[in-house]
Amino acid sequence: MYWLAIGLGSGLAPKAPGTAGTLLAIPLYLLLESLWMWQYLAVVVIGFLAGIWICATAARQLGVHDDPSIVWDEVIGFLITMIAAPPGWLWIGVGFVLFRIFDIVKPWPIRIIDQRVSGGLGIMLDDVLAGIYAMIVLQVLFRVVG
Predict the structure, then answer these.
(1) Is 111 inside a domain boundary?
(2) Is the pLDDT of residue 146 over 90?
(3) What's the gap between Cα 50 and its chain centre?
(4) Which of 62, 79, 96, 109 has its CA at 20 to 30 Å from residue 90's CA atom?
(5) Residue 142: strand, helix, or coil
(6) What is the pTM of this model?
């Protein structure tokens, strides 16, 4: 489970491990994008629920809550960003940038949740919300700019 938590090693990147973990999510998204919507959502929900345990276990092993090397939450956050995303590399890139912005900046209430919710749920939840924010902005951009 540790290898899943650290994104198959991407979380061990010396700089910007969250960005490296999000990059790992792109090939996973490409594998999943052709699924029916209900199947894609099922993978995301299962990934989130498993992530609570995966991240909590890794945090205990590392002795640090939400150690930067734990990037499973970024993987799931990016997959949330890309729910019903328009096809094409442009939109994958836009989704990537939007997710990283929301994950780094942590606008209200993401920062509060990040600070107050502990354990695996806390590790996962801020990235889930960042993914939801990024998904909303991505959908609006697509409808406005298209």
Answers:
(1) yes
(2) no
(3) 13
(4) 109
(5) helix
(6) 0.96
